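Backbone-to-sequence.
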């Protein structure tokens, strides 16, 4: 690939940033259509209760109130769909309880939606929602996996025995048991992957509008892709042709997976807009985000490895239990079931047996959150591998090196059926160890001990699967002024798509980035789109943009050949023009566009990249921590990561993605704790009680790549949006446990490693 000034591989600064950082971004809450009304939800204060709503007419008569919707007012509409039901190990499909737009006489988590109120102002809507007389009859709440599976436990859903949403298996149980039977040693570990509140910067909001003349709705919202939201609304909820719905997404302030799927407020705002004849806007406050938006993670994992006499892995057993919450959110079952297929990680494990169970509890639904099952899988295997090192008297790097899949075995089919096309896992680990000064750690540990603190060093070698699935259509068009426009159905939520896609176009058309416009977020302007999730936008969408740009370049040369009276083989594209090689004869893009007037198809090109297989980013994270055992406080003092992303599009964008993911991992490992009490109240329901990582919690991050191009992607790219969050948690926790084990013999600690937990572990070890 030839180097271009603004093309692939160049460290271009983000062209969207001047607009965003100067306050000129346009988010959903910035939009207020003429005559817009405002909505508020009445939410349950109880986790499990039957209820009855009193005099609704009195509330409807309150000042400014335009509409009050309860479940009784929504006859004929469907509920929120679950698009990824799991198949049980006996071949049956899991039972799918309803997820109604408003609760039908029974609430199942604190924050469950009971009524939707529309008024002239947001304050009037809130007042009316609070004025509703709702009689609750609280019942015992089921909290956590232990509560869900306890003998005699009440049922969240009467039709679901044992609160087991699904029970499925992967792998080869017979081969696994045979390997364990002949093992020289077995090692096991029980791990909690703590529940997280996603806390994107921009809380959710939406605006529903209805055109009585056309019978069409427009829904404006911050999303990760409007097409799937449109299709779900049309098919499952409103039950209309999808052409009657337009979904518009302006700027989006973060998503992390959890803005990808449907929420109740979206169809409710649309229904309310039709009934009131007014645009209807709903905007969440941060406290409502804690009570109303899908949360992440929340797994209990028992993992076991069988080893031979030389310490090589023979087989792995995984018993994964996942808390689904009270309802099944859009992709919820897919997260643990698909994520579990990455359980072998980067290791040559000949046999594996996996059992995955999902449980209903009286808590908020859980769904995709940055990494979506892959962080959970990486955490389990990487914490277990460190535990193997301690149990066998080896070192973390030696155990890994002995069991890594070797490059010469690529492509490699794992025992769960994943096919890794490329990867040099030991190479990444050794480079990371060098950059982290692994050999100098003993001296640093001694120096720290002299201050009364303890020091730990941890690593994690991860792999993930991304950028697979359906293809992505892209259109690149030359405008009459000689600039280019990209139309694509992915959706930026802060990743820098405007810059990234512009660089790919510039690679083929040699235009400066400010002459390339990227259009996303409008289902009327863009026919199809898979949205953004699973690190797919640049590997999949970018490959499509690249193909469309190449096709357009051919068309432009053909048009220029007419203008310049030259053969296409004698032409080249340079500096936004087509010129005859070796001469000063050239036609600018604007001139070419003028020449093609009346032939619009000659000035645009489409392409779709259909991935034949997922891509497999991988790498090694190394974290070094200092712990004050008297206070229990952990300080991350050094962080190094070496990643294999195949091909780097923009090193600045890439570093930002990796840094952001690492910070989220540090947050989960050390700080973030979602806690429900026995009555189902979310105790950590605000940023006062839910500790997010701060700038002071993050050291300078040393990041570099050791890329091996993907053979399953048109551009050789592997995807990078989630990688930082996948490798960071096990690296941080391995460092914490390394410090605690060296001083106190503590071999395990669950996330988050808060001061209270560390103090309790230290006190317990001291007897």
């Amino acid at each position: 690939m030839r180097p271009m000034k603004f093309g692939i591989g160049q460290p271009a600064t983000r062209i969207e940033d001047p607009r965003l950082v100067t306050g000129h971004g346009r988010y959903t809450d910035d939009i207020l259509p003429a005559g817009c009304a405002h909505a508020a939800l009445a939410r349950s204060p109880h986790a499990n209760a039957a209820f009855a709503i009193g005099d609704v007419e009195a509330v409807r008569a309150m000042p400014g109130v335009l509409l009050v919707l309860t479940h009784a007012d929504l006859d004929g509409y469907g509920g929120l769909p679950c698009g990824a039901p799991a198949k049980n190990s006996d071949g049956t499909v899991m039972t799918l309880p309803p997820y109604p737009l408003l609760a039908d006489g029974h609430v199942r988590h604190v924050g469950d939606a009971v009524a939707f109120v529309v008024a002239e102002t947001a304050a009037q809507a809130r007042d009316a929602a609070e004025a509703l007389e709702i009689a609750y009859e609280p019942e015992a709440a089921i909290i956590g996996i232990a509560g869900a599976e306890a003998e005699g436990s009440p049922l969240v859903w009467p039709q679901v025995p044992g609160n087991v949403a699904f029970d499925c298996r992967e792998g080869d149980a017979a081969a696994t048991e045979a390997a364990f039977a002949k093992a020289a040693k077995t090692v096991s570990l029980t791990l909690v992957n703590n529940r997280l509140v996603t806390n994107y910067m921009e809380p959710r909001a939406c605006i529903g509008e209805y055109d009585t003349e056309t019978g069409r709705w427009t829904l404006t919202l911050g999303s990760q892709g409007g097409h799937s939201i449109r299709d779900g609304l049309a098919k499952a909820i409103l039950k209309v042709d999808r052409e009657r719905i337009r979904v518009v997404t302006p700027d989006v302030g973060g998503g992390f997976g959890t803005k990808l799927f449907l929420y109740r407020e979206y169809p409710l705002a649309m229904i309310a807009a039709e009934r009131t004849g007014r645009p209807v806007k709903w905007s969440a406050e941060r406290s409502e985000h804690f009570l109303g938006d899908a949360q992440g993670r929340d797994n209990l994992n028992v993992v076991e490895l069988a080893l031979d006499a030389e310490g090589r892995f023979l087989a792995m057993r995984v018993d994964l239990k996942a808390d689904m919450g009270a309802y099944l959110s859009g992709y919820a079952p897919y997260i643990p079931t698909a994520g579990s297929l990455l359980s072998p990680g980067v290791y040559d494990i000949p046999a594996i047996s996996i059992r995955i169970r999902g449980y209903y509890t009286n808590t908020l639904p859980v769904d995709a959150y940055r990494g979506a099952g892959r962080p959970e899988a990486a955490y389990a295997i990487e914490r277990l591998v460190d535990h193997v090192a301690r149990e066998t008297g080896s070192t973390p790097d030696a155990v890994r090196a002995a069991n890594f899949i070797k490059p010469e075995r690529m492509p490699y089919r794992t025992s769960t059926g994943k096919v890794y096309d490329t990867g040099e896992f030991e190479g990444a680990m050794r480079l990371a160890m060098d950059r982290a000064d692994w050999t100098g750690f003993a001296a640093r540990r001694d120096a720290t001990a002299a201050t009364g603190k303890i020091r730990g060093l941890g690593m994690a070698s991860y792999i993930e699967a991304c950028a697979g699935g359906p293809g992505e259509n892209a259109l690149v068009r030359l405008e009459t002024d000689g600039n280019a426009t990209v139309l694509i159905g992915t959706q930026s939520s802060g990743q820098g798509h405007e810059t990234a896609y512009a660089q790919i176009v510039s690679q083929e058309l040699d235009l400066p980035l400010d002459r390339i416009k990227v259009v996303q977020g409008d289902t009327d302007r863009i026919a199809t789109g898979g949205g953004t999730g699973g690190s797919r936008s640049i590997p999949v969408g970018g490959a499509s943009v690249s193909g469309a740009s190449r096709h357009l370049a051919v068309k432009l040369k053909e048009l220029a050949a007419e203008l310049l009276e030259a053969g296409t083989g004698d032409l080249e594209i340079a500096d936004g023009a087509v010129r005859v090689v070796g001469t000063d004869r050239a036609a600018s893009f604007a001139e070419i566009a003028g020449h093609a007037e009346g032939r619009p198809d000659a000035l645009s090109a489409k392409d779709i990249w259909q991935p034949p297989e997922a891509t497999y980013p991988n790498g090694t994270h190394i974290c070094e921590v200092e712990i004050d055992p008297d206070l229990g406080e952990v300080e991350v003092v050094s962080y190094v990561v070496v990643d294999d992303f195949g091909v780097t599009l923009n090193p600045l964008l890439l570093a930002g993605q990796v840094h952001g993911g690492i910070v989220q991992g540090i947050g989960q490992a050390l700080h973030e704790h979602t806690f429900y009490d026995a009555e189902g109240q979310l105790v950590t329901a605000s940023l006062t009680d839910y500790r997010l990582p701060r700038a002071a919690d993050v050291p300078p991050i040393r990041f570099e790549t050791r890329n091996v191009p993907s053979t399953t992607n048109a551009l050789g790219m592997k995807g990078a949006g989630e990688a930082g969050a996948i490798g960071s948690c096990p690296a941080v926790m391995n460092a914490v446990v390394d410090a605690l084990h060296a001083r106190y013999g503590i071999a395990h600690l669950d996330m988050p490693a808060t001061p209270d937990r560390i103090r309790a572990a230290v006190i317990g070890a001291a007897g």
